[in-house]
Amino acid sequence: MKTYPMKYGTEVISVSVPEKNLLGVIKSQSDYIKKHEEEVILDALQNPIESPRLGEIVSPGDKICIVISDITRAWQKMSFYLPYVVEELNQAGIPDESIVFLCATGSHRGQTKEEHALLLGEKLSKRFEVIDHDCRDQDNMIYVGTTSFGTPVKVNKIAMDCDHILLTGAVVYHDLAGWGGGKKSILPGISAYESIMANHSLSLNPIVGTGLNPKVRCGNALDNPLYLDMVEAAEFVKPSFLLNVIMDDQGNIGKAVAGHYLKAHEVGQQLVEGMDGIAISKKADLVISSAGGYPKDIELYQASKALINAKNAAKKGGSIILLSQCVEGFGHDEVEQIIVNYDSNQEREAALRVDYTVARYTGYLISEIAAAYDVILVSQMSPKTLEKINIQIVSTLEEALQIVYTKKGMDLQTYLIPYGANTLPKMNE
User: Fold this and answer.
1) What is the mean pLDDT of the chain?
2) CA–CA dist 299, 22 (Å, integer)
3) What does each C-alpha distance from 297 to 6, 323, 361 come to in angstroms?
4) Of the candidates 55, 146, 189, 400, which lies 20 to 30 Å from 244 by C-alpha distance?
């Protein structure tokens, strides 16, 4: 029997699988030379990609907007790297009062003062306040242009009124945008609600009744309309600088890229592919995946990323056990509504096309995966919550395994994915 630890909320669960059935543990490749996180950040800032250093871009008297991620992405350890950004600005003659922190909440909820303090860290939170972007605050939006995909781009005035916009975040696989980080700090990060929804509606196949657009998927930038649309939106804004981190398999900052907001991010994509794009030679009968613990499994909305990645390692009709505590339940009312208010995925697709939101899309995508795979969720959510889409919810891994083994037998080829929100299994071509 092989035993492997997986995160569940703030706990660790031991996952045991018969050795003869274990196809492998799908996790990040960490064969690069380990550096201290400080060295990683400083090296990126001191060696920007296709850009002067940040301190050479800004001038005394400039107003700076630093765009940061929200609490659902606290795993990127922004409280660690943001002080280095501020320090370089200060050294370049930019005082604290000329720096604004704008949180790229997109269409997510606003945050508490305590959460803001977690984002900035103890020292910075005593010096700065965080402004949450409100995508529905029309009075605080400015129109910057319409993309070739027809998306009207309206962006937060606070950012646009500054002399320089700095993007921070993490490069990671993303089920809609192909890649997280980079241009996502602009759209959806600090864009108006209608801009976000117009962009994200590109996730549906243009032909009604055919469901999802197959080009909209993790790791695809080449012909992903969402990705390309976001890039056009960012080009309207023209951020001055970017710092994006890349997390290793232990949740530490393993690498970072800085510089031009597009070119540096593209280099980051290549680094992530080398770390988190894991080749597999066959698919499994059973995939056991963890979202990666808190805060990645704070809610079903966020934890769905791990489910989306896990399906790439499972045979069609195979079983997926997802460890996701979901202390905040669905995480969004519209995720719940699209799942529980309709009786079929055809009805869900039709409703989504009439009133598209990111949260409703996420609920629909979960429903589509549940129709193609046997999904069991280990969670604190109510056991009846996902009955409409035939996802069983249990409170322990042992219960989940018992259900699978009773239904399909013990002899199941199995993959384990300990950091499912980040790791993308990819079949060898």
Assistant:
1) 93
2) 29
3) 12, 8, 18
4) 146
155-192 per-position pLDDT tens digit: 999 999 999 999 999 998 888 899 999 999 999 999 99
**Strand 64-68 and strand 164-170: pairing?**
parallel
The closest of 305, 273, 268 to 417, measured between CA atoms, is 305
How far is CA 238 from its chain centroid?
A: 23
pTM of the model: 0.83
Domain extent at residue 51: 37-274
How many domains would you assign to the chain? 2
- In sequence order, the β-bridge partners of residue 277 are 424
| Closest CA relative to residue 307, chosen from 248, 358, 388, 366 | 366
Q: Looking at the chain, how many residues does it have? A: 429
3-state helix, strand, coil in the chain (%, to 5): 40, 25, 35
Residue 33's pLDDT band (cuts 50, 70, 90):
low
Cβ neighbours around 264 below 10 Å, total:
25
Classify residue 212 by its DSSP letter. Answer: B
pLDDT surpassing 60 at residue 31: no
* Under 8 Å between Cβ of 185 and 150: no
Question: Where residue 30 falls among pLDDT bands split at 50, 70, 90?
Answer: low
**Eight-state DSSP code of residue 384:** T
Final residue belonging to a domain, choices 274, 298, 318: 274
Q: What average pLDDT does this structure show over 14-22?
A: 93
Kindly state whether residues 75 and 202 are assigned to the same domain: yes
Identify the sign of the CA torsion 173, 177, 179, 182.
negative
The model's confidence at residue 429, banded by pLDDT at 50, 70 and 90, is low
Closest by CA to 203, choosing from 233, 167, 178, is 178
Q: Tell me, what's the pLDDT at 229?
A: 98
Return the ∠ at Cα 273 (arms to 224 and 203), rounded to 5°: 20
* Residue 295 DSSP one-character state: T
Amino acid identity of 213?
A: N
Q: How far apart are CA 369 and CA 171, in angstroms?
A: 25
Residue 310 has pLDDT above 90, yes or no: yes
Four-CA torsion 79, 238, 135, 337, nearest 10 degrees: -80
Q: Give the DSSP letter of residue 207.
A: S
CA atoms of 212 and 46, how far apart (whole Å)? 42
pLDDT at residue 175, rounded to an integer: 84
State both tokens at 61.
């008297």
Q: Are residues 13 and 136 in the same domain?
A: no
In which element (H, E) is residue 305 found? Answer: helix 300-310
